[in-house]
């Protein structure tokens, strides 16, 4: 199934059971769901915070964990300086806190191994989070679908899930990691040190046994526009490109 | 007579294979295993299928529909032909296969051949289903469900749930590929709404695990000791029902087990579902979706970003004020040139009127300054648009709304449904200018729908038409979990919101 029909998703309380710093600006929060759900890789949850005066703030965060991870959901939240919800998570939230959450949501930006491939995933910064769920889903399913992940970060220290991704890359089981750093030299052979362009897309796709059946792009809006254009310039039909954007 | 048909039918089939009358490149397909080619042909007044294997022996079978059932026609096996003929045929077919392989690998060409109306939105049929030519969306009632599989009502075929021709539908509706695209053609592929399953918390080793594949369900249930029956809440296509299920054994299982050659062993436990419900079509969770919790105050969270006082009453529940203008879309940004732009007003499939860019710009322009509300929770005040009110479009077409519902269509295949009453009475326009300037492509230019009183996904970007429909038909996001109407003041974000 690639796109889900609507399912029920009431608000529920979820307890933070673990907090793990991923990069200087991104921290993962692991939630134990009081009402577990089955999500699809790529879906998001809505999180709602309530102030004593009744004021509520609500944001959407992509799920980083695989659907196979049981009743626990990992959200990797990037701290936005002018944000309202992300500073709360980074500064206040602690293990044991109960947060109101609703999901799984979204039925378009999803992939499951039964959709097949090959696929190319393109993520910028914290846009890698929903793609990580897809990569982890692939691993959990022991799927052999060829997947190339092109991940753009500013510096090596900001590569979210870096060790896990490199470990998966080293397995050579059809998953290929392509890192590109925009403000530092490349750290691994065959990685890049520039912004995403059509040539990089073409070279990354050449690591797949055949042209991708689907291209999945997530990141800041400007990144997604540039990456989608690079894919189109690399002869990927626009109809095969799914995007998820955030920010301005 | 029989003797005559013994000669003519294979001959006709062979001629059809070598020098096809029927769009061959669309019907050659790669099967599982050795390459073969298959095509539908008419032999006399009968619908037949020629099925040619190229390896290990070049031979063709022809089968025809007789009394709604497929029976091999009087023998069409060419294996008995003289060696010379086989070699000649192999050479000819090899040449054809060369062309076919080229066509198979030429993606653009295959896509060009598809009639756009037959393509599903946002996904494409795999080549193994004969590309898109033989495939189309079919109504729910064209496909029946029985405990043993799906039934194609048009042909009476039963496709078991384990059949590899069953594929997952990407948009929640049935799609069917049949030979030659005919309504009485044999099934090549059937795309169905699959479901994932969350098993009851009370059935241990599989509790809370997402079951993505029905086979996994059987496997998981096989490791569980038989237990009591219990009620599961099941959702399918947005409808809820309750079913009783349990892990257990029954006498049927024992029969099946011995039939499968497991005679000596006791039958394996499995999840027993009521007749008519298959694990494939089941999405089960065991909690009540209607139960809603009252928000508790979040420890340590204070209202830091209160809206300015002049915003009182202007920010719908759950929204925050945004100064910039975020961009959201499901795919890449289409670049539509105004010389290629047109806008079509339709009633069902029938076009009522079509405007070019110049003609559309000659319609009366109106200005709307409105607050807009995106379902991703931002609200932006006082956005200023100029465009043509839907009222004025209807006046120019000389019609009143013929139905109560519409679908707005976009150049990229996007569609969203809006009731006609929400478009008329000065409530909505086709916007051409934003803040006095042409709308940029990322914000939906050259023209987008503007329905500011509904969540902004209803304001379709890259608009190219408005279609009146007899029923309220969900559009792109509405099929993917978002609310059918989308009133920000009632916080109708997702399908199950009241």
TrEMBL record, chain A:
All residue ranges annotated as the FAD-binding FR-type domain in the record: 9-111
**What does UniProt give as the signal peptide span?**
none
Q: Which InterPro entries does the annotation name?
A: Cbr1-like_FAD-bd_dom (IPR008333), FAD-bd_FR_type (IPR017927), Flavoprot_Pyr_Nucl_cyt_Rdtase (IPR001709), FNR_nucleotide-bd (IPR039261), MRET (IPR050415), OxRdtase_FAD/NAD-bd (IPR001433), Riboflavin_synthase-like_b-brl (IPR017938)
Q: Which CDD domains match?
A: FNR_iron_sulfur_binding_3
What is an example of a GO molecular function annotated in this UniProt entry?
A: oxidoreductase activity
| Cofactor names | [2Fe-2S] cluster
PANTHER family referenced in this protein's UniProt entry, alphabetically: NADH OXIDOREDUCTASE HCR, PROTEIN RFBI
The name this protein goes by in its record: Oxidoreductase
**Which species?**
Mesorhizobium wenxiniae
